[in-house]
């Protein structure tokens, strides 16, 4: 057998895998210019700064430099606009301008648009957002063949949150509805970052209402509506900031309870009112009896006061229109008569007590 027919054992050395360490990635950032120029510390606009992070490189690890950006610039869409339309894009643009030029002044009616004071127009050219932000108010120019635009209303809008069935913290099922007032704070973001800002805000308001009221008791829902509205407004405002929406105000309209619970609460409230009424009546009688006792003590000390009170009573009786005839009787004679009759009354009471003792 020849040496060529013998199997040859070959050994391959496989290098160890390389590990990549990433710095935090911020999406939607254009780094093409940095790759072309090689300048990693180049600034893109007044707000974007690319931060260099150095790491120790070894035989088995490699450092990758990724851009870092401020949180407030995360939603800056205009900073990421690329004006490169490509060859076809420039050809279509030139042809569109030539068509406008040769069809003047008819094409002017299609190129000139007007937006109101409370509106803004977001323009797209060949699907790309035009630099300069939203246009308006007033007149702006578009190329009909390659430009499209959307009008955005910047006025305060409102919508009603449908009644939501919510289980409170103390296991009570209630139906709560609310009303939300909002406005578009950034027309460009509201068009590019979300399909329908108003509808998305409405759906988010429904879930936020359920989440917040699910942590409250029934008493807190009925008494702390202002705090609940403020908490909901803050939560919605933070969540809708990436959509260019500013939530101005949230109001809880109505908290509807089940019929059985309404009856139970009404019975409880009625019982509490009756108890308070009895306490008030008892306190009034107590105060009246004390005042009557003090008046009796004062009248007993002065016979003339008793006589005056007697005359006032006669006067009040005679003032009424009735058929009663009153004969004034001297109070001195009446007191003497009562003193003479007092022994007889005492004797009668003693006899009644003896009869009761013998019968028992």
From TrEMBL:
<dbReference type="GO" id="GO:0043005">
    <property type="term" value="C:neuron projection"/>
</dbReference>
<dbReference type="InterPro" id="IPR018080">
    <property type="entry name" value="Band_7/stomatin-like_CS"/>
</dbReference>
<feature type="transmembrane region" description="Helical">
    <location>
        <begin position="90"/>
        <end position="115"/>
    </location>
</feature>
<dbReference type="InterPro" id="IPR036013">
    <property type="entry name" value="Band_7/SPFH_dom_sf"/>
</dbReference>
<dbReference type="InterPro" id="IPR043202">
    <property type="entry name" value="Band-7_stomatin-like"/>
</dbReference>
<protein>
    <recommendedName>
        <fullName>Band 7 domain-containing protein</fullName>
    </recommendedName>
</protein>
<dbReference type="InterPro" id="IPR001107">
    <property type="entry name" value="Band_7"/>
</dbReference>
<keyword id="KW-0812">Transmembrane</keyword>
<dbReference type="GO" id="GO:0005886">
    <property type="term" value="C:plasma membrane"/>
</dbReference>
<dbReference type="Pfam" id="PF01145">
    <property type="entry name" value="Band_7"/>
</dbReference>
<keyword id="KW-0472">Membrane</keyword>
<dbReference type="InterPro" id="IPR001972">
    <property type="entry name" value="Stomatin_HflK_fam"/>
</dbReference>
<keyword id="KW-1133">Transmembrane helix</keyword>
<feature type="domain" description="Band 7">
    <location>
        <begin position="110"/>
        <end position="269"/>
    </location>
</feature>
<comment type="similarity">
    <text>Belongs to the band 7/mec-2 family.</text>
</comment>
